[in-house]
């Protein structure tokens, strides 16, 4: 209210000035402000253009050189002679992402349902920050935990198949799961909390228990938001670099055994980037080839996820 | 009374399933909290005997007895500070423009919005690649310096800042602005004097979270030479640098056991910094929420 009255006095002062000159000055000032702000939107467009233009030329150049080698089964682009079979990176990435989803989806959705249908206002005020703190743990710390605690303490001792070498895909998967849990929880919670109260009350009036309302009514009504949450978390896990590099190692082993060390697409970029590849070298171009795939896949998933969210908003808001 | 009789008609099976489900949900939350505490405990246990002034004031070293994080801490402050100085004003202005001035049903606006949303989901490491191609080398050729790294992090947090700032601006009741417009203010005056002041707590919360994300992020700067061994503090935008997350990474990849403890100590320092930032953000938001409810 005080803000309003302040604005009122300033325009009253304005009335003292010759109206036309004053108005002209105000409008001039506004047009400058608007144009300055337009530059900001230009910057975001420029970043996307920059990403695309940094990725495409080296990718096409390299693809022209290696052609069908991409479909091989050995990934060793930094060795002599280089080999570009990308299959080990694909299996490594998917093993780790799928393990991550096994953690993030059940725990994240449980947290979301708890927040939207079980927690009282005060409990919510405590639980929400817990999830935000989890989201705030830096990836390098989760990597460290995976490397020092999960790998030697769990994987080396209890993983039944194969010989452990200190790095494991399952450790990286678990830590990536922890990392993406808050994404699932917060996006799904937004969706489930937006389901109208009347739908819940109708369920209770028909004699449904709280769980029946939560799982059969709220969850089904908010299912598109839940799907979006999973898609966005998937994209995040797909692009995670540091955790995969620290916990799963940097050896691109073609294997489906989660106890083995593996390399993901993102962790290859990090690993090769450490080596400071000279511009136009094969290593440099390989980084951009893998980066293009990473960018495309995450782009598709993010587009899909955000689209579902915005459609969901239209339905309930 | 009627409730009691209804309750008793519930079959035992339904009641048991309900109870089990409630326990499962509560367990998930408790497990999450327990995990956070266990991570913190592990860091503390592995590093408490190292926590002294030296770990903060020493420079990186090959000798575990002299190793510390001074150049990494200053590097992080420099890089993240410059990134924030660039990204926060641009992000806020863009948010204001998109919320208050851009045509709402405009095709161009919706393309820009989709673009910003997607940028927020681009993997961090990809920003390192554009930094490598265009800023560190290529047309700008700034090399592996504080300036390049700051630009990369600024690009990374810009979409996040825009999204949270827009939400904060949208949360200001339209009636406030309408009142100012009715009194003869221009659109810009109404936004600058009425909408923005009310949105500041929300923008601040989002900005702090974005900055703390930049501070904890390590992947994009792997590509910009931040993993190098730097034994001096940055002196300007053209200095070489290392950052706290990557110097932790570097110590962690040393096979000698002593360095694992140093990496843990560094992690504890990083976590304390980030938690402090997060708590400030949560506190600001909580206070703003309470005010707006009164």
* Low-pLDDT runs of chain A: 1-14
Q: Which class of secondary structure composition applies to the elements of chain B?
A: mainly alpha
In the CATH scheme, the class of the largest domain in chain B would be Mainly Alpha
Amino-to-carboxy terminus distance of chain A: 28 Å
Beta-strand percentage of chain A?
Answer: under 5%
Global outline of chain A: flat
Q: Which chain pair shows the most residues in contact?
A: A-B, 94 and 102 residues
What brief labels describe this structure?
heterodimer; A: 317 residues; mainly alpha; MetI-like fold; 2 domains; two-stranded antiparallel sheet; 2 strands; 76% helix; 1% strand; flat; disordered N terminus; B: 294 residues; 12 helices; 0% strand; globular
Provide the fold topology:
The complex is a heterodimer of chains A (317) and B (294).
Chain A lengths: L1 H13 L4 H48 L8 E2 L6 E2 L2 H32 L2 H16 L2 H20 L10 H25 L3 H9 L4 H12 L1 H16 L3 H6 L17 H10 L7 H35 L1
Antiparallel strand pairs in A: 1-2
Helix pairs in contact in A: 2-12, 3-6, 3-9, 4-6, 5-6, 6-9, 7-8, 9-12, 11-12
Chain B lengths: L1 H8 L2 H36 L5 H5 L12 H32 L5 H15 L2 H13 L9 H25 L3 H9 L4 H30 L2 H4 L21 H9 L4 H37 L1
Helix pairs in contact in B: 2-12, 4-7, 4-9, 4-11, 5-7, 6-7, 7-9, 8-9, 9-12, 11-12
Describe this structure in words.
The complex is a heterodimer of chains A (317) and B (294). Chain A contains twelve helices and two strands, in the order H-H-E-E-H-H-H-H-H-H-H-H-H-H. Chain A has helices at 2-14, 19-66, 87-118, 121-136, 139-158, 169-193, 197-205, 210-221, 223-238, 242-247, 265-274, 282-316, and strands at residues 75-76, 83-84. A two-stranded antiparallel ribbon of chain A has the order 1-2. In chain A, a hairpin with a 6-residue loop joins strand 1 (75-76) and strand 2 (83-84). The longest helix of chain A is centred in the first third of the chain and has 48 residues, at 19-66. Helices cover 76% and strands 0% of the residues of chain B. Chain B contains twelve helices and no strands. In chain B, helix 5 packs across helix 7 (146-170). At the A-B interface, helix 1, helix 2, helix 3, helix 4 and helix 5 of A face helix 2, helix 4, helix 5, helix 6 and helix 7 of B.
């Amino acid at each position: 209210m005080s803000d309003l009255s302040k604005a009122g006095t300033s325009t009253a002062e304005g009335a003292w000035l010759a109206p036309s000159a004053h108005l002209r000055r105000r409008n001039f000032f506004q047009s400058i402000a608007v144009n300055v702000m337009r530059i900001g939107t230009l910057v975001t467009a420029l970043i996307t253009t920059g990403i695309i233009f940094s990725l495409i030329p080296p990718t096409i150049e390299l693809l022209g050189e290696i052609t069908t080698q991409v479909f091989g089964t050995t990934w060793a682009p930094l060795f002599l002679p280089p080999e570009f079979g990308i299959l080990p990176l694909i299996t490594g990435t998917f093993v780790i992402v799928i393990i991550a989803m096994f953690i993030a989806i059940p725990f994240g959705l449980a947290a979301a349902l708890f927040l939207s249908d079980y927690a009282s206002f005060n409990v919510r005020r405590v639980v929400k920050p817990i999830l935000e703190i989890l989201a705030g743990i830096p990836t390098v710390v989760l990597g460290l935990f995976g490397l020092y605690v999960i790998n030697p303490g769990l994987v080396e001792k209890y993983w039944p198949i194969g010989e452990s070498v200190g790095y494991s895909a399952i450790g990286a998967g678990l830590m990536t799961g922890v990392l993406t849990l808050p994404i699932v929880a917060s996006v799904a919670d937004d969706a489930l909390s937006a389901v109208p109260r009347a739908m819940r009350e109708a369920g209770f009036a028909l004699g449904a228990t709280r769980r029946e309302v939560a799982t059969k009514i709220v969850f089904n009504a908010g299912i598109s938001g839940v799907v979006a949450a999973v898609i966005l978390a998937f994209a995040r896990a797909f692009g995670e670099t540091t955790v995969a590099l620290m916990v799963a190692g940097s050896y691109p082993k073609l294997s489906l055994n989660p106890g083995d060390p593996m390399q993901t697409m993102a962790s290859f970029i990090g690993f090769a980037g450490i080596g400071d590849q000279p511009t136009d070298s094969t290593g440099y171009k390989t980084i951009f080839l893998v980066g293009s795939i990473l960018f495309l896949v995450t782009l598709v998933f993010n587009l899909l996820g955000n689209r579902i969210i915005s459609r969901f908003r239209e339905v309930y808001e | 009374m009627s409730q009691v009789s209804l309750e008793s008609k519930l079959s035992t099976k339904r009641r048991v399933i309900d109870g089990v489900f409630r326990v499962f949900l509560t367990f998930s939350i408790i497990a999450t909290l327990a995990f956070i505490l266990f991570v913190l405990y592990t860091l503390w246990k592995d590093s408490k005997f190292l926590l002294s002034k030296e770990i903060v004031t020493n420079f990186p070293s090959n000798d575990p007895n002299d190793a510390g994080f001074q150049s990494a801490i200053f590097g992080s402050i420099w890089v993240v500070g410059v990134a924030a100085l660039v990204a926060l004003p641009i992000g806020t202005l863009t948010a204001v423009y998109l919320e208050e001035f851009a045509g709402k049903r405009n095709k161009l606006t919706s393309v820009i919005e989709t673009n910003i949303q997607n940028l927020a989901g681009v993997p961090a490491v990809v920003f390192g690649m554009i930094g490598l191609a265009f800023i560190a080398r290529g047309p700008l050729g700034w090399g592996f310096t504080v300036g390049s790294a700051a630009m990369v992090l600024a690009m990374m947090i810009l979409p996040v800042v825009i999204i949270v700032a827009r939400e904060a601006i949208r949360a200001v009741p339209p009636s406030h602005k309408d009142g100012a417009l009715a009194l003869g203010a221009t659109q810009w005056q109404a936004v600058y004097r009425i909408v923005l002041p009310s949105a500041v707590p929300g923008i601040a919360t989002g900005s702090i979270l974005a900055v703390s994300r930049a501070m904890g992020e390590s992947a994009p700067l792997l590509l910009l030479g931040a993993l190098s061994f730097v034994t001096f503090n940055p002196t300007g935008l053209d200095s070489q640098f290392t950052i706290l997350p990557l110097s932790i990474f570097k110590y962690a990849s040393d096979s000698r056991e002593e360095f694992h403890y140093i990496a843990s100590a560094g992690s504890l320092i990083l976590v304390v910094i980030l938690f402090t930032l997060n708590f400030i953000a949560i506190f600001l938001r909580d206070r703003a929420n309470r005010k707006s409810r009164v």
